[in-house]
C-alpha cells in the first residue's frame, strides 16, 4: 500500500513519534526545526538576487518611460501635422465646416499651445511635488490623450480649451521625465553598489559623480526612443494623407523663392493641396488609432513605471513648505552654472523648431513639395535617434566634447544654409536636403543628450532636480514662443538669430566649465529642512531618517542660516532622563505627560 501524499495531521505514522528524517513529532519536536532558517539558505546569494531584480526593475522603468514619451509625442505631432494640412486646404474647409472660421480656431489653438507654457514656471514645481514625479507624468500624458480625443468633434469649445490644457502640461511632462531618468540612474547606482552602501552610514551620500556613467547610458536610451517620435508622427502622413495630396507642380506653382531667399512660411503656396477629400469614416479610423496609441502610452506610464522616490522621500519633498517650493526655482538664478547654461537652453528650443519649420518647410516643402515632407522628418528622426548613442562618448571623452561637437556641427550647417537657396520644383538636389536633415538630427541628439546629462551631473541632490529640469524646459518653452512670434520673419533673419544664439550658448558654456575648473564654488539656495506636522513611529529613531542628503553633508548638527528650530517645551522636566536613552517620547507617553520611558 502506497503512503498518502500528504500525511494526516496528528498521525504518528509508521515510525511512531519520529518522522523519516529522525526528528521527533508532536509537542516534543524542537522549535528550531519548525521555524528556523532553511538549512541551505545562502544569505549573500539571496541578497545578490534581490538587488539584481531591483536593477532589472530600474531598466524596466527607463524603457517604459522612454516608450511612453515616444508614443505620446509621436501621436501629438502626427495629429497636429495632419490637422493643420487638412485645415489649410480651402476646399476641405468649405465643404466640411462651411463658415465656422476654422483658420481662426487653428490660430487660437496654436496660440494656446505656444503661449500657455510661459506661465509654467509658476506651477510646475508645485504640481510635481504635489502629485509626485510618476503621477505627474501620467497626468500630463492623459492631457495629451485628451487633446487627441477632442479632434473627433472639431469645434472652438473643444479644440481651444484642450490646446490650452496641453500647453499647461508641456513643461510639467518633460521636467518630470528628465527628473525621472536622473533618479533612475541614481537608484541603479545604489542597487549596483549595495555592499558599499551597507558599509557607509545610513544617510551618507555616495561620492559625487558616481552615478554619471549610468546617467549617460539612460539618457542615451531615452533620447534614442524620443527622437523616433518624429518618425512615428509621419506614419499617418505616409500611409494615409499622401494619397490625397497634389504633386509639387500644383502646390508650388506660384512659389518663387526658397531657402535663404524665402520670407515667412511657404509664401505663394497653393491654397488647395488635396486632390480628393478624405472620407469622414477614414478620418475617424485614423484618429481612433492615434487615440489607442495615446491610451497605450498612458498604460505604459501607469503600469510599468515605478515610483521615482520612496514614500518617505515623497513626504520630505512636500514638507519643505509650498511657499518655498514656489520660490526655489527663482532662487536658483543665483547659481552661476544655470545662468551660463540659459543660452543653451534657449538654443535647444530654437534648433528643434528650426528643424521642423526651417529645414522641413522653408527648404524642403518649398522646393520638393508637400508629399516629401514626411520623408525629410523621418531622415531627421533616424539621424537623431542613431546619434543619441554618441552621447556615450562622455564615458571616455572630457565632458564638454559631445555638447561642443553638436554645437559645432550645427554651426557649419547654419552657415551652409545661409548661402543656399534651392530652386522650386527641382528634385535633383533632394539628396542634399535629406543629408542636411539627418546631420541636423545628429547635432540635436548631441545637444539634448549632453544638456540633460550635464544637469543630472551638476545637480545630484534629489531635492533640487525637479527645480532644475523645470527651469531647463521652461526656457525651451520661451524659445518656442519666440519662434512662434517670429514665424513671419525672412529666413536670413531666422538664421542670423540662430547663429548668434548658438555662438553665445557655446561661449557661455565654456566659460562655465572654466569657472568650475578654477574651483569657483556655485551659490545654491538652501533647501529648507522638512517640517513634519505629524509625528509617528518613523520619527522616533535617534537617526533622522528624513534628513536630506544636503543637510547630512553639512554635518547634521547645524540647521544652516535661516533655518527654523523647534522651541523647547516650557516648564520643568518631570525627571532626569535615564542615561543611554536619547529619543523622543512616543505619542502615548506624551499623552501621559512624560518625556520618555519611565525609570525602572
TrEMBL record:
One of its GO terms (biological process) is toll-like receptor 9 signaling pathway. InterPro entries: UNC93B1 (IPR043268). GO terms for cellular component: early phagosome; endoplasmic reticulum membrane; endosome; lysosome. GO terms for molecular function: Toll-like receptor binding. Residues 1-28, 532-600 are annotated as: Disordered. Keywords: Adaptive immunity, Antiviral defense, Cytoplasmic vesicle, Endoplasmic reticulum, Endosome, Glycoprotein, Immunity, Innate immunity, Lysosome, Membrane, Phosphoprotein, Transmembrane, Transmembrane helix. Residues 542-552 have a biased composition (Acidic residues). Its main location: cytoplasm. It is a multi-pass membrane protein. It is found in: Cytoplasmic vesicle, Phagosome; Endoplasmic reticulum membrane; Endosome; Lysosome. The chain crosses the membrane at residues 58-79, 109-128, 135-153, 159-181, 214-241, 283-309, 341-361, 373-396, 403-421, 467-487, 493-510. Belongs to the unc-93 family. Plays an important role in innate and adaptive immunity by regulating nucleotide-sensing Toll-like receptor (TLR) signaling. Required for the transport of a subset of TLRs (including TLR3, TLR7 and TLR9) from the endoplasmic reticulum to endolysosomes where they can engage pathogen nucleotides and activate signaling cascades. May play a role in autoreactive B-cells removal. This is Protein unc-93 homolog B1. It comes from Propithecus coquereli (Coquerel's sifaka).
